[in-house]
Amino acid sequence: MKSIVVGNWKMNPATLREAKKLLDATKKAADTAKHVTLVVAPPVIFLHDLRAAYKGKRVAFAVQNASSEPSGAHTGEISMAQAADAGASYVIIGHAERRGMGETNDDTRKKVAAALAFKMTPILCVGETARASDGAYFNVVKEQLRLGLADVPSPKLGAVIITYEPLWTIGK
Q1: Residue from 18, 48, 97, 165 carrying the catalytic annotation
Q2: What is the pTM of this model?
């Protein structure tokens, strides 16, 4: 069984030059990590250049977010088609920070379906904003899974990566 490690670079580093250095270090780590799929999610502005410069097979690329809309007047968004064209084969969906900014379960449902339609692997993030001792967070996660996967046909469920990532564990 292969493990998957996803490195979400968030808004780091500040320059393409620094991003190339970070990718070089990542490549070295990937070469020593057998039975591991390493996925890096750099800032989208660096994705195309990093993917074009990488010639190996040990590192895959992801976008940190993409729209479910195929095109149109959506300022600041990128489509799944644009993400795939830039070199991403994975897309992070429902990250705790995105949910904290208002991304809904319905948004994640649409994005998971759109990613699969473009033959990209969705990484569906689920998790509660706070943990209470009464176990209510189980219902939050259950609902995120139920709605996030609602449009995924049973044979495609294995193509979706689920990651448990509660908002209260994410550092600023």
Answers
A1: 165
A2: 0.93
